[in-house]
Input
Amino acid sequence: MKDRVLALDQGTTSSRAIVFDRHGRTLASAQREFRQHYPRPGWVEHDPAEIIESQLAVMDEVLAEAGPVHALGITNQRETTVLWERDTGRPVHPAIVWQDRRTSALCAELAPHAPRFAARTGLRLDPYFAGTKLRWLLDHVPGARERAAAGDLAFGTVDSWLVWHLTGGRTHVTDATNAGRTLLFDIHRQCWDDELLALLDIPAAVLPEVVDSSGVVAETAQGIPIAGIAGDQHAALFGQACFEPGMAKNTYGTGCFLLMQTGDTPVRSDNNLLTTMAWRIDGRPSYALEGSIFIAGALIQWLRDEMGLISSAPEVNELAASVPDSNGLVIVPAFAGLGAPHWDPDARGLAIGLTRGVNRAHFCRAALESIAFQSAELVRCMEKDSGRGLSVLRVDGGAARSDLLMQIQADLCGAPVLRPDNVETTALGAAYLAGLATGVWESTADIVEHAGVGRRFEPSGDDVSARWSDWDRAVERAKHWA
Ligand code: ADP
Output
């Protein structure tokens, strides 16, 4: 049993539970989807009760299959905001999901204070984060602000909401990585910030206690210690064993999420990246730089569903590998504008360099290259901001299955790319955090020792400067289009 750790992975569209052994191998796993609600354009909500039901159901399922576990770790969709009654545990409103844009006007109003929010929290003043969502709930749920000030209501991101339920309403906590996504938490001083709370008119009485990402916080009703908590991207960084500054992970899903560990001092970005917590262990914070790409794997879906160039996602690799290069074609998939480092909402996608000889294999190759170029741009920003070269890029997510994409990525970054055997890195990270606190693993070195090796892609050393210059020129042409 000392060998087994349960991870709860509460995601945006499904709740999952996985039992891992000491080698990071999966012993049992289960997944359940739940409903998404779109009450108005730009609004996205979840039913907090459904989050709990789905999560408890998969937890019971894997425990029945794998037997007793030594500890439990939680990882969760970040920023999604829940407000509930302390005495009944009933939410006063549906959860407002991270994608929800209902607080755009409020963020615009607060724009003069953006530098202060950035200095304390490392974040951009954006509806994405939890703080303005909580403010909206206090403004719009009748009586909420008074009840919150009186200590009758509890706010939490999904980690808090889960712990509350797992402990029968005894424990109201959040970990430092989740606190760090609220716009209310000073990541330098590691505490809720009174000035930011005042700016958002949020009473401190509503807030959870902030705990380490690794450490026993409570026991579940079944007596399992809850010993690790981290937001999904932070858990993935930990699950990828990026324990040293300069190590980074990239998740290739619909979009990409790239985080680089920067050690024990937060690095301020000059390139519009976010400064965020990596995790906090034994009261000691570690920090990261974070950048995201809106369209990555989604481009491959688009080639399949909208363009009919391929019939399945894996086919993109066969076709792309059938040609030595993209034959001068560059695709910039700015379907929804461009994020870091360009931040141009008016950019739109383009394919440039078309000649008579360009065929669908070249399109597939250019598509893979565009995912790698966008990721490598983020790496370049992180290297500039941190003054540190990338030592290794660890990868996960659906599109990381593409060997060709990984090779192109290594070439463009000029650093090795490492793909673990078990790509369930988010859940694995939560398990590591919990197991580290309870003696399943002695140390991070012990984790590394027991982890599988995976596959490594070395940079070929080919000169990529001409390709970079084509990419840069294409990006310029994609900007300011809409
Ligand atoms: P998300 O969690 O964002 O839904 P996943 O991590 O499940 O994403 O990854 C799915 C994405 O990976 C899809 O956009 C798909 O196009 C891409 N993908 C899946 N398999 C492959 C493959 N073999 N080669 C390249 N891309 C792939």
Observations:
- Residues 4 and 21 are 5 Å apart (CA to CA).
- The first strand starts at residue 5 and ends at 10.
